[in-house]
C-alpha cells in the first residue's frame, strides 16, 4: 500500500526536524560554554601545593628541619605556579634558573635570584645574569652548568629550580631515549622543572595542550632525574642531618 504525505504532514515533519536540530545546536553550545568555563577555571585556579605536598615530608627527612623544608617546598611551588601562569598567558616561558638565596650571606647587589639561560652573557653585577644559548650544543650546555655551579657557590644559594621549555632544547633531548629511558609523554609540548639542592634532586615535566583556543597545562609528571635530567647536578651532594644522602 502506497502512503502519500500531505503538505500538512510534511510541514509538521519539517518543523519537528528543525526543532530537533535547534535542540542539538543548543546542547552543543551549552556543552562548549560549560567546557570553556572549566578551562578558564583550570587556567586561573593553579594549586601546585596539592601535587607537591609529599615533597615537604621528603625534604623534612633530608634537611632535618621543618622550617627549612617549608622554605624549600614553597620555593618549588612558587616557581612552578608562576611558570604555569606565564605559560597560560603567553604560550611560552623563558628558560631560567631560580636560586633560593641565603638571606644572611648573599650579596643581593651582586647576585640575582633569577638567571636567564638563553641570551648573551653579561656581568655578574647585573640583576639578571645571562648565559649564552645553554641548550644549543654539548659545549654551550657544559659552559652553562659549569657557570651555574660556580654561581650557586658564590651566591651562597640553598637550592635552585630550572625551568626549560622542551621546544628550545636542542641538547640534551632527553625525551628521545629508548628502553628504561623511553619517554612516556609522546609529542606533547610543555616545559621541564628541575629542583636542585645539596640533599635532594627532583624533576617534573608539565605537558601543555590547546583547548577551546586556550593554552592549558595539565598535571605535572614526576620524572626520574637520573634518567631525564636537563642539567647535571648543580650543588655538591651533601649528607643530610639524619644521615641520608
TrEMBL record:
Protein name: RNA polymerase II-associated protein 3 isoform X2
